[in-house]
Write a structure and sequence with these properties.
It is elongated, with a radius of gyration of 17 Å. The termini are far apart. It is an all-alpha fold. The chain is built from three helices and no strands.
Length: 98
């Protein structure tokens, strides 16, 4: 499973890079999805921290329940892939201009 996750973290941003270069609307789509999912991760994390502080369970492991939320996992995964895509985009632009 570790190998599949590691390869996916390289392959998915590369596919995103290729589709963004071939189809212009993909670049906008990836940016909007990145914004939406980053906003969602932030809201879910903030609500999780608020619940921990409200319930005074700071020294407990309640905050780890965040990792059971499928929306948090999906949006975090896309946000990570989008960040790698942006890094690859910068690397390819720098290589092309050099």
């Amino acid at each position: 499973m570790v190998i599949a996750i590691s390869l996916g973290a390289l392959i998915v941003p590369f596919i995103m890079q290729m589709t963004a270069r071939r189809y212009r609307f993909c670049r906008q789509l990836y940016a909007w999805l990145g914004f939406l999912f980053l906003w969602l991760v932030s809201i879910i994390a903030a609500n999780g921290v608020y619940e921990v502080v409200r319930d005074q369970t700071v020294f407990m492991t309640n905050i780890h329940g965040l990792f059971l939320n499928p929306w948090f996992l999906i949006s975090s995964a896309y946000t990570g892939m989008y960040a790698l895509y942006l890094c690859m985009d910068q690397l390819f632009e720098n290589r092309k201009s050099a």
